[in-house]
């Protein structure tokens, strides 16, 4: 291998959430690849007409898998005219996937002081980083409560919903719910389909009119709340402004903040 910046990994399986649109891949993990929950990797494939060649096309994907898990998992949307995601969606068990050796990104819990309520707001595949964060037991120990909000267009796009709702009965997470039944509040929100008890609204609308706090049963109090935003840039720009007006801001010069933002585009 001529380039030592990456390793060749092997696809374990591919899960389709929405045919032709949303999928996840599991791949082997190099034992030396270490990352923090919330970080992303650069993932590579060879050019389409040279499938056995060295990788030349690279894209950034947040790890869905937790730092302690022995495999890597990535969640992706298919960009129909893209040169990467349609091919990644067609990979099958045994195929090669290339991973750069160094992780990237700062959407990690190091951005915040522990305690209070952790709010995780995602649109679409921006959920990826939060799954890694929530699969890490350290997260559950660091915050009194966690609010996970996943905004999508249609109900079928609520990937990982069954897993998230199943944590309450999972032996790894059940003790936290026994201590506090509202340890994790999960709010799946679809703008184009009705879900029981949830408005069909954009996340920014729900922040602005106070309904998000009512749904979560928690207040967006900058003294207690820490907020992560991950999703499409337009949503994040609007949400960031709304939250800035409420007193939320990123940390600076070594001082922890109460807001962390990452475009997922």
Automatic annotation (TrEMBL):
EC number(s) stated in the UniProt entry for this protein: 1.18.1.2
SUPFAM superfamilies associated with the record: Ferredoxin reductase-like, C-terminal NADP-linked domain, Riboflavin synthase domain-like
Domain FAD-binding FR-type: 4-110
Enzyme class per UniProt: oxidoreductase
Keyword Nucleotide-binding: yes
InterPro entries: FAD-bd_FR_type, FNR_bac, FNR_nucleotide-bd, FNR_type-1, OxRdtase_FAD/NAD-bd, Riboflavin_synthase-like_b-brl
Keyword set, alphabetical order: Nucleotide-binding
CDD domains for the chain: FNR1
Catalytic reaction(s) noted: 2 reduced [2Fe-2S]-[ferredoxin] + NADP(+) + H(+) = 2 oxidized [2Fe-2S]-[ferredoxin] + NADPH
Family of the protein in this entry: Belongs to the ferredoxin--NADP reductase type 1 family.
UniProt name for this protein: ferredoxin--NADP(+) reductase
């Amino acid at each position: 291998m001529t380039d030592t910046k990456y390793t060749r990994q092997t696809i374990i399986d591919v899960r389709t959430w929405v045919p032709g649109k949303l999928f996840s891949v599991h791949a082997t993990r190099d034992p030396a690849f270490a990352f923090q929950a919330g970080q992303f990797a650069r993932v590579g494939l060879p050019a389409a007409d040279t499938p056995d060649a060295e990788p030349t096309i690279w894209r950034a994907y947040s790890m869905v898998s937790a730092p302690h898990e022995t495999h890597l998992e990535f969640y992706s949307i298919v960009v129909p005219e893209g040169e990467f995601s349609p091919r990644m969606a067609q990979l099958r068990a045994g195929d090669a996937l290339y991973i750069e050796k160094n992780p990237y990104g700062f959407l990690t819990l190091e951005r915040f002081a522990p305690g209070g309520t952790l709010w995780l707001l995602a649109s679409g595949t921006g959920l990826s980083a939060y799954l890694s964060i929530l699969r890490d037991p350290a997260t559950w120990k660091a915050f009194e409560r966690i609010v996970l909000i996943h905004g999508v267009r249609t109900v079928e796009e609520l990937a990982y919903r069954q897993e998230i709702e199943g944590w309450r009965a999972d032996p790894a997470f059940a003790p936290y719910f026994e201590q506090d039944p509202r340890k994790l509040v999960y709010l799946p929100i679809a703008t184009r389909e009705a879900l029981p008890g949830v408005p069909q609204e954009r996340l920014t609308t729900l922040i602005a009119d106070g309904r998000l706090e009512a749904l979560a049963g928690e207040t967006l109090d900058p003294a207690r709340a820490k907020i992560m935003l991950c999703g499409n840039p337009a949503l994040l720009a609007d949400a960031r402004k709304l939250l800035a007006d409420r007193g939320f801001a990123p940390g600076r010069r070594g001082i922890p903040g109460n807001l962390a933002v990452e475009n997922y585009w």
